């Protein structure tokens, strides 16, 4: 794969990995590309592809399924990276090739130069686009790429299926702030998922404190979007509600850490909450305690960072350079739970510039927005989402009740004509009630049910029957 698709004089290449399943292939069948998104793929993921909706589509249409790995993730590395930090050793000279256009062109290059092992050159030419219809499937970030590819390269990818996805800290007297800093420092030190590099209360900036206090929500994001409230926040909320005052009301600058870290958890929850029934200070200590316990529980489940170092570094660069999806405080929202100090400016300073001194002052989000956002109307595309997926608030099917800025585009299951965008404001697809992030790509992890997967496959197949007839 070319490292730089847009400089003919640069002949450097790298190995971009993919896995292929041609179990059901019959000549003339389409190629389904499953984009693995912002994480490296491993063989153990690729082997049980029968769990995924895309393979059911490949079976139904006698096609080939490819699981595709994004550049700079997994083993698809155009450059050397640190084995400890995952950062590219060449710094910006490497990361300047990790951008939306280069990554999209990788997929275009694969589709138009496809030569799978075990197939002749003639077969490869036949399987390449546009001789064979290529159909992109993806969820979350990979889903946004699926939508953009139909706008950017409609002659290469014939169709796509997409699944989307402050009042805690306030300034006060110097003594009060010092006391709060020490309490947060103790809690951060006791939380195995806490902020690294904090050696004293004085090291904590307001953004650091706000970031730590946001951990139960930020740290729960993956579990919440993938499994819902029970896995994401239920235990944390229970520990917060049943926290007992003990001697925390007398916490001072010299109190032992156990005042913050230990609790009997035997109070009775009240509708009014701790801040009303006891005091705002006690509610703050209860939050710190529940925060610690959540970090310990999360660490027991997933020690360290579940993302490989190179994947984490690459995704951070993508966020800081172009994507800009910073999950920060919505201080304008009356229901906001995250401190106003956990904002974009602080996140850029702590997450971007500390890791990438050469990062742009602001992410170049126009690299994505130029293909359309809420108003986009690509043809031959199905959009789906989970009804309780938090990412749904910024998805194309978001409602004004979820996001005041959303355009309220209704979903329809009436198939649009081949190659023709829907008229009006409708979106072809479905929001699955009570479902989470990407719930229609694989069976329910708790029950094994394939009901949502089956419904999604049926809905997309309903469209493909119409669209493929005009290829």
Task: Write up this protein.
- The model is unreliable at 165-172 (pLDDT under 50).
- This protein has 19 helices and eight strands.
- The radius of gyration is 24 Å and the shape is globular.
- The longest helix has 22 residues, at 280-301.
- The protein has helices spanning 43-46, 53-60, 92-95, 100-112, 121-127, 141-152, 174-190, 206-213, 215-218, 221-227, 229-232, 234-241, 258-261, 274-277, 280-301, 309-323, 344-353, 366-369, 451-467, and strands at 18-21, 31-35, 64-68, 134-139, 159-164, 381-386, 411-412, 427-432.
- Strands 1-3-2-4-5-6-8-7 form an eight-stranded mixed sheet, sandwiched between helices.
- The chain is of the alpha/beta class and 471 residues long.
- The two termini are 28 Å apart.
- Helix 2 crosses helix 19 and helix 12 runs antiparallel to helix 15.
- Helix 6 (141-152) links the parallel strand 4 and strand 5.
Map the helices and strands.
Layout: E1 18-21, E2 31-35, H1 43-46, H2 53-60, E3 64-68, H3 92-95, H4 100-112, H5 121-127, E4 134-139, H6 141-152, E5 159-164, H7 174-190, H8 206-213, H9 215-218, H10 221-227, H11 229-232, H12 234-241, H13 258-261, H14 274-277, H15 280-301, H16 309-323, H17 344-353, H18 366-369, E6 381-386, E7 411-412, E8 427-432, H19 451-467
Parallel strand pairs: 2-3, 2-4, 4-5, 5-6, 6-8, 7-8
Antiparallel strand pairs: 1-3
Helix pairs in contact: 2-19, 7-15, 12-15
